[in-house]
Specification:
It holds the Pfam family Abhydrolase_1. The protein is mainly alpha-helical. The protein is 49% helix and 4% strand. The protein has eleven helices and two strands.
Length: 255
């Protein structure tokens, strides 16, 4: 999950993969340090240390076989985006702790990560009691609920993550090394052209740094979409993930 986000933000994919197709997929979602149910140590965070946290969890679960995992991340989580992109992300999200009304804070976050068409559309997510009037209402309720649980979301954890994001950087040489080691045909770069959090030019920079489409990296750029394609375009996103999983299995069989 990205900066300031809880693992439950993957609820759509958790349902679609782990439950609806539970006989085919096993999924693991985690809170990054500083958020949710994970520890919130008082120290300087870094994206490399947060990546080690994830590896320790995966080792503990026992998923240690070669080429066993398909890793999906959003925003801060891929840990590949260049520093400028993360600085913009930080600037857009830091409003969470600038003194202003809660309504203003939520309205600003809505603007930064969602398209207006999605916010205005009726809530169609599966529900236990009843749906919200709109997707925007559901998001607002989730944000309010999150902020009422300081054990999950607080200033210390958020700021520590934000500092880690702000210091993150990958050179073209490092991106090339990642492409070489992972295998470019196993990598998907996905972005919305109207993303206000990490603006679209950074997606192109990331794609080119990895070697471009001609090297085998798969590109999925969604015209007019914002920061949270997994939520706004649930079916399209899930289809891409399933295709990448199958591609990985095919490549593993050839290895």
């Amino acid at each position: 999950m990205g900066l300031g986000g809880l693992k439950t933000s993957w609820q759509r994919q958790t349902k679609d993969f782990s439950h609806t197709q539970g006989s085919k997929y096993s999924s693991l979602i985690v809170d990054n340090r500083g958020m949710g149910e994970s520890s919130k140590p008082m120290q300087r965070y870094s994206t490399s240390e947060m990546a080690k946290d994830l590896l320790e969890v995966i080792d503990h679960v026992g998923w240690t076989a070669e080429r066993q995992l398909n890793v999906v991340g959003i925003s801060m989580a891929p840990r590949l985006v260049n520093t400028v992109g993360f600085v913009e992300n930080l600037r857009n999200r830091i409003n969470l702790f600038i003194p202003r009304s809660l309504d203003d804070q939520i309205a600003n976050v809505k603007h930064n990560i969602y398209t207006q068409a999605f916010l205005d559309a009726p809530d169609t997510l599966e529900y236990k009691v009843q749906p919200f009037p709109t997707n925007g209402d559901r998001f607002a309720a989730q944000e309010v609920a999150k902020r009422k649980m300081p054990q999950y979301f607080n200033r210390t954890g958020f700021m520590a993550q934000a500092i880690a994001a702000g210091w993150h950087h990958k050179t073209d040489a490092q991106l090339k090394e990642i492409g070489d080691k992972v295998g470019r045909e196993r990598i998907l770069v996905l972005h919305g052209t109207k993303d206000r959090m990490i603006t679209f030019p950074h997606a192109e920079m990331l794609l080119n740094g990895l070697g471009g489409e001609e090297s085998g990296v798969r590109k999925a750029f969604f015209e007019g979409q914002g920061h949270v394609v997994p939520i706004e375009l649930r079916q399209e996103f899930n289809k891409l993930i399933e295709e990448m999983v199958e591609k990985g299995k095919t490549l593993n069989a050839k290895a």
